[in-house]
Amino acid sequence: MPLPQPELPEPAHPEIDSMLSRKFGKEVANYFSGSPLNRVSFLRPDHAFLSLALKHPSASFVLFNKLEPLLASPSELFLAKFSDVQPILGDDPFATSEEELIAQYNSTSYIPQLVFLGLDEKKEGFQYKEHYKGQPYFALDVTPKLSVTEAAEKLIKDVEGRGLTFSKGRVHMSLAAQEAAIYAEARHLLDWNSRNPFCGQCGHPTMSVNAGFKRTCPPKDSAPAFASSDRPACATRTGISNLSFPRTDPTVIMAVVSADGKRILLGRNKRWPPHWMSTLAGFLEPAESVEEAVRREVWEESGIHLGRVVIHSTQPWPYPANLMIGAIGQAIPGGETVHLGHDAELEDAKWFEAEEVREALRVGTSGLGEDAGPEYKEGGLRLPPKTAIAHQLISAVVNGGFLSGAPMI
Amino acid sequence: MPLPQPELPEPAHPEIDSMLSRKFGKEVANYFSGSPLNRVSFLRPDHAFLSLALKHPSASFVLFNKLEPLLASPSELFLAKFSDVQPILGDDPFATSEEELIAQYNSTSYIPQLVFLGLDEKKEGFQYKEHYKGQPYFALDVTPKLSVTEAAEKLIKDVEGRGLTFSKGRVHMSLAAQEAAIYAEARHLLDWNSRNPFCGQCGHPTMSVNAGFKRTCPPKDSAPAFASSDRPACATRTGISNLSFPRTDPTVIMAVVSADGKRILLGRNKRWPPHWMSTLAGFLEPAESVEEAVRREVWEESGIHLGRVVIHSTQPWPYPANLMIGAIGQAIPGGETVHLGHDAELEDAKWFEAEEVREALRVGTSGLGEDAGPEYKEGGLRLPPKTAIAHQLISAVVNGGFLSGAPMI
């Protein structure tokens, strides 16, 4: 049986009849976007704020064990309280300023990764200064490790005793839209921190600052082996280096329309189930515009030459750190011959008539590991679920809804 | 006097009257995009291909000294020949396979960074297999350093003796459009390699592979101090890690239109010349869609609440590694009050009538360090040059050209 497909996030302010929405149609909000949290990013270095937020009774902690989130149900994250995590976090990790913590840095101390995710302003919570209020959300890595092994094992045993589970599997598409967006932010930040314990510039250990949104290369290390000398100079300490900030990898994903506007190109990977096809996709390269990356990837994977490219919508994809930029491109006349031999990533790529694709959107969509719906007939085209931006792009072309609202083909 | 502003790149296939271009208007191609090179990315691990390309008489080398490019004129890159760079590169850095080079890795050997940029298919050059031909382009770091100090100093003295210069200054906007795109690719890759000599995951030195487009963490190091033992396990060696591939940081930049559609918001940084204003901009954060990042940044920097956001076009920005994603957003009714106190990045942000902005686009655009044009009257609004995506966004709103072609306000 197909799993129920969660609803997509609401577009921001769908009720507003603005000039832009009249002209370009309703904004498409994709799964993993639509977060209810205000990140108040400029407050992240403010330990007075973070300390108050952390200890406020409304503070909520999303827990991860080896990047697996603790769920209250398939559609909901479990939210722990400060008292639950105090044995792991200590009384107040924000009691001293960031400068002091950097000055005291000791590479042999293990500090479990904590991330401030934002304030849910629609919920009752705490107030900070005039403008900032709501329920504070944090993410915490409770993987049993080094000095927190015992406290983390106790917490895990306790929550598992209450029937809760850390959700296995890599991709979580069963969460409700707003929960999925909170999970995506938490997972992306925890993963980035865990991949970068060392400085790419100088090779020394780095430390997490700015409530999980920055890593710094401290000038001194008070671990006994290093305490007598300063560390070598590092370029990330002078000026601003992008290596200090979280990495997000832009990828392009595109629906391709034929030159005569009557067909759409779909491709398939050999690992996919039979008859399952989707849009093409790939990583944007250094110094490419999105439009150029779309044309390059389509040519490399399918041999097709594109002209005009239009950007449709975007989707955060926290596996581990992607931004999917969805586009629609049209083949140039004479550039429609499929050739799979350049990059050889796809097992097949073919042109489909709009009617066949419309029918597949109606009866043949599902996640990769799931069965198609009850109306699906064996041998028919299968397509990704609506939580995938690929589905939205295909739908925008054959069913309309993007910009004018009328189908393109 | 204002410097001449170079022409923008041609949109791909402007002559084609496709359904997408009829519906959405002409594609906006921004400066640093529009590369004439086919990157044939799938050939980068193929040392037989790279070796032939490198030694072909048409092979062209863009040279950099500490990330500064060697220019033939303010609008043109100088292209060196293989014989010029052979004393630095050796007879053939691609003579052995990538696997062998990784197996022989020695962290004490200095190998000057070489990047294969692509084939210019419009120029006479060499042919590889059935589909790949053109003039091969490479970028090479000729900074005098370690084992190549002498050879690099000799080359630099030689080219400077011919009246050529490595161009100082951080941002190069005088290059002709296609030269700028080639430079951007080269600079982005050389910078990324130079920032990542160590592995962020395990702290050990990494080596450049895939013709400059990947860094790998070798399992052994044959340097005398390490030759007797394998290096510790590293997660980047098992499975695919994004840390092995070049980093590109997505940023959002946006023209903001008032709720009544009659005004446009512009902001200024205190470091800019008097009366100079531009669009707002900022980095996209982990697990944000572009549309959400636009709304967050506009609120954080100006206090304004946006509803509908439309993506306009994109621009590579190789300082050091950005992808600028240009958008247009509209304020919601009641959400237009400017408040600079949240993030406090801007010195000012104000609403402008369309007519004043149209006049400034006509008489008051220039690069940041340049004078405005001869028709500019002191005290009038100044705006960025057309090589900046900010200019294109402002122009799309007040002069039209985006999608329908009609001005929005």
TrEMBL record, chains A, B:
Q: Name one GO cellular component term.
A: peroxisome
Q: Could you give a GO molecular-function term held by this entry?
A: metal ion binding
Annotated EC: 3.6.1.22
Q: Which reaction does this chain catalyze?
A: a 5'-end NAD(+)-phospho-ribonucleoside in mRNA + H2O = a 5'-end phospho-adenosine-phospho-ribonucleoside in mRNA + beta-nicotinamide D-ribonucleotide + 2 H(+)
The name this protein goes by in its record = NAD(+) diphosphatase
Which cofactors does this gene product need?
A: Zn(2+); Mg(2+)
Similarity-based family: Belongs to the Nudix hydrolase family. NudC subfamily.
Which BP terms does GO give this entry? Answer: NAD+ catabolic process; NADP+ catabolic process
Keyword Ribosomal protein among record annotations: no
Q: Where is the Nudix hydrolase domain?
A: 246-374
Please report the organism this UniProt entry assigns to the protein: Melanomma pulvis-pyrius CBS 109.77
Which controlled-vocabulary keywords does the entry list?
A: Hydrolase, Magnesium, Metal-binding, NAD
